[in-house]
Amino acid sequence: MAHVDNVMPGKTLLQVRDLKKRFGHFEVLKTIDLAIEEGKVTFLIGPSGGGKSTLLRCLNFLEKPSGGEITFDGERLCGEEAGRFACAPESVLRRVRTRMPMVFQHFNLFNHRTVLENVVEGPIFVQRRNRDEAITHAQDILRRVGLYDWSDRFPGQLSGGQKQRVAIARAVAMKPDLILFDEPTSALDPELVSGVLDTIKALAEEGSTMVVVTHEMAFARRLADTVHFVCDGVIAESGPPAQLFDNPRSERLKNFIGSILR
Ligand SMILES: Nc1ncnc2c1ncn2[C@@H]1O[C@H](COP(=O)(O)OP(=O)(O)OP(=O)(O)O)[C@@H](O)[C@H]1O
Ligand SMILES: [Mg+2]
Fold first, then answer.
1. Beta carbon of 54 within 6 Å of any ligand 1 atom
2. If one looks up domain 1-88+213-262 in CATH, what number appears?
């Protein structure tokens, strides 16, 4: 389903160095260093307000960072230029965003377009791909997320879980290099969560590169290659899930894990 033909395990797809983000005087991201390898699944966990969404949104420039350096597939997208911080032109960032789409908590579908139209919109109108090829690809993706029979419905006729699977199909249809998920199940009724998690799991098993923000700790533990604990604008602790969940080193992570298990 995913665009994984050219995945090179071990290759760093996204490199983040000393990333900073301020809103006015409020420093939301203080200094973030992060490397995302191709084919790997990275989870971001941490307390509310810690900066997870802001970090995710800075990665694909939905939010402009205030400092630091981001390199994506060898292309530097922001950094110091003649002593001043600068981001790549908007045309470059738009192209990058199609390679690094984000799946949001609240789906962000076009409600006046059918499921199929939602999924082919990016490939046809943004990426200017061949219409017939885009439709065939979209139908294949919809089949795999179990929504082929719903292709002609409108989002308003779908459950939250189905909407979220359409949103995932939309991202996958772009043949992305990396998919960013910001709490993809937190707006769903409990009985709808597992269908969406299964879809994300299937993508991971096919080798898609993903960064996932979630409060679903059991899911993170099962699927993650690496977990980062984001707290107070820094990555306070990182490692494989077993290490972070079973052997947290910092008091902050111990408290966080204690609070969610309580
Ligand atoms: N546009 C904005 N303007 C001002 N402050 C903001 C803005 N966006 C986020 N913040 C602040 O930045 C901090 C981090 O927010 P962020 O949404 O990144 O946290 P989070 O870790 O995703 O939290 P949650 O788990 O609740 O989603 C919060 O204190 C928030 O109020
Ligand atoms: Mg958030």
1. yes
2. 3.40.50.300
Mean of the per-residue pLDDT values of the chain: 94
Cα distance between the two ends of the chain? 38
Of the candidates 147, 92, 102, the one whose C-alpha atom is nearest the C-alpha of residue 122 is 102
Dist. CA 250 → ligand 2 center (Å) = 22
Tell me how far apart the alpha carbons of residues 40 and 204 are, in angstroms, rounded to a whole number: 8
pLDDT of residue 4: 58
CA distances from 259 to 139, 144, 158, 241, 252 (A): 42, 36, 34, 17, 10
Comparing CA positions, the residue from 99, 205, 204 lying closest to residue 214 is 204
Question: Would you kindly state where each structural domain of the chain is located, as residue ranges?
Answer: 1-88+213-262
Alpha-helical runs (H) found in the chain = 52-59, 90-99, 115-121, 131-144, 160-173, 190-205, 217-223, 241-246, 251-261
Residue 46, token pair as written in the block: 């941490």
Sign of the alpha-carbon dihedral angle for 198, 199, 205, 208: negative
DSSP per-residue string spanning 90-120:
HHHHHHHHHHS-EE-TT----TTS-HHHHHH
Q: Which atom of ligand 1 is nearest to the CA of 54?
A: 18
Query: Which band of pLDDT confidence, cut at 50, 70 and 90, is reported for residue 5?
Result: low
